[in-house]
Write a structure and sequence with these properties.
With 422 residues, the chain is of the alpha+beta class. The chain has 16 helices and 21 strands. The strands form five sheets. Strands 1, 4, 5, 6, 8, 9, 10, 11 and 12 form a nine-stranded mixed β-sheet that branches. Strands 15-17-16-19-14-18 form a six-stranded antiparallel β-sheet, with helices on both faces. Helix 4 packs parallel to helix 5 (123-136) and helix 5 (123-136) packs across helix 8.
Length: 422
């Protein structure tokens, strides 16, 4: 099962300046405007490595990394360590804490059932990460994964580490408190490593990075530049207990745009055989209304002071359309939306979704409403969040959810801990 190990992390030194000026959010949620702000905030911001730009962006990232290593802006720790990481944040008025272990995890094919994915990936994103890795031989950010620890063996060790004074402690510009503990005690590390030997890992966030790391290691082996056991055969991961009360999954709502033709009445006519359609005048109650649902239910919004609740009448409706997927996949709200509405009624198939031709996404209900009101979108579908147990069930079934089925909040910050494997 899962093989983890400690490592000598690459980290910013005091020469780099204030750490809060040098870290950044994950590369895939940063807009051009946000990137420019990060570039301006510090000459050493990690965004220059994680999201390079220019005529030869990947070469530029490699050159910048070399310069920072030569100048002592970045340096590897002296001892093999595990890194306990904690984020304290507020979501919808409630404070949460999520903690876990940053370590190296042996790369395994998904078919082995050791590391389990839950979402589809895009080839374009994987090519980008592969090119960056080819020039830097680094993981600048972690894959976010989860494990089951019913006996609380790992949790016991981690909680003892959390009782100590953190080695890094600051509040980032987004208001989220970031803490890091460096654990280099061989005895404690050995206990934690052994506790993972019988466990499976469920990828929460970072499918593209994991698949890229696996492909990159294979390419090195094929070229005779790596062998079994080399550090390129491991991926830096953040591992959290799947039952941690600090795990928060937000829904990802669907925005439909640029259709040649769109008619609210026509859509309602086509969905009514499968969905119970109820017109509701109070748009401000969408979230509360959806949370009451015990079968796939969506809010269909078209730009006015009302919305339509679409509640699935027959829970076997998806099974009648989708025959080659798991029961766990068929039970998802997002599966019902895609297979019963978006594909057959709007003509938005997988290729269309991958190119985001007629479909975009938002985590905000307010944006799902304002985008339609402002004419940027023709309509929107507002969903409940995918639940942790649904993610686990889909992964265990060897299946994958549609893209953008989950959004773990908050994202892990980039730049606290890095893995240089050559």
């Amino acid at each position: 099962m899962a093989q983890i190990k400690p490592f000598k992390a690459l980290r910013f030194t005091n020469r780099a300046g204030d750490i809060r000026d040098n870290v950044c959010p994950p590369y895939d949620i940063i807009s051009n405007e946000e990137r420019n702000e990060l570039i301006s905030s510090s000459e050493n911001n990690i965004i220059r490595l994680e999201l390079p730009r220019g005529d030869n962006p990947y070469v530029e990232a490699g050159n910048t990394l070399k310069k920072w290593l030569d100048n002592g802006v970045l340096a590897c720790d002296q001892k093999d360590s595990l890194y306990v990481y904690e984020e304290t944040f507020v979501c919808e008025g409630k404070e949460y804490k999520i903690h876990g272990i940053i370590c190296l995890v042996k790369l395994e094919e998904f078919s082995k059932g050791v590391v389990l994915p839950h979402e589809e990936t895009l080839s374009k994103a994987k090519a980008d990460r592969f090119n960056l890795m080819s020039e830097t031989f680094c993981n600048f950010s972690q894959v976010y994964s989860m494990y089951i620890d019913n006996e609380k063996i790992i949790d016991k060790e981690v909680l003892e580490i959390l009782d100590k004074t953190p080695d890094v402690d600051f509040t980032a510009k987004d208001g989220i408190t970031q803490k890091l503990w460096i654990e280099s005690n061989p005895e404690r590390i050995s206990k934690i490593v052994k506790a993972f030997e019988g466990k499976q890992l469920y990828i929460a966030d970072g499918h593209h990075r994991y698949e890229t790391a696996l492909n990159f290691h294979k390419s090195l082996v094929e070229k005779g530049e790596a062998v079994e056991g080399d550090q390129s055969g491991y991926m830096m991961m953040f591992l959290a207990d799947i039952n941690d009360p600090g795990l928060v999954i937000l829904p990802t709502h669907r925005l439909v745009k640029d259709l040649d033709e769109f008619s609210e009445d026509e859509v309602l006519e086509k969905v009514s055989p499968l969905f119970e359609v109820v017109k509701i005048d109070n748009v401000s109650n969408i979230k509360e209304d959806l949370l009451k649902a015990n079968v796939p239910t969506f809010a269909f919004y078209t730009g006015f002071d009302y919305y339509y609740s679409l509640k699935l009448k027959d829970t076997n409706a998806v099974s009648k359309v989708v025959v080659d997927r798991s029961d766990a996949y068929k039970s998802l709200d997002v599966t019902a939306l895609h297979t019963l509405i978006l594909e057959p009624i709007f003509g938005i198939d997988k290729e269309n979704m991958a190119q985001q031709k007629n479909l975009t996404y938002t985590r905000s209900i307010d944006e799902a409403i304002s985008s339609v009101k402002d004419g940027k979108s023709q309509c929107s579908f507002i969903l409940n969040a995918t639940k942790i147990h649904q993610l686990k069930d889909v992964a265990l079934a060897g299946d994958k959810m549609p893209q953008k089925s989950t959004y773990f909040y908050p994202k892990l910050i980039t730049g606290l801990v890095m893995n240089k494997f050559r």
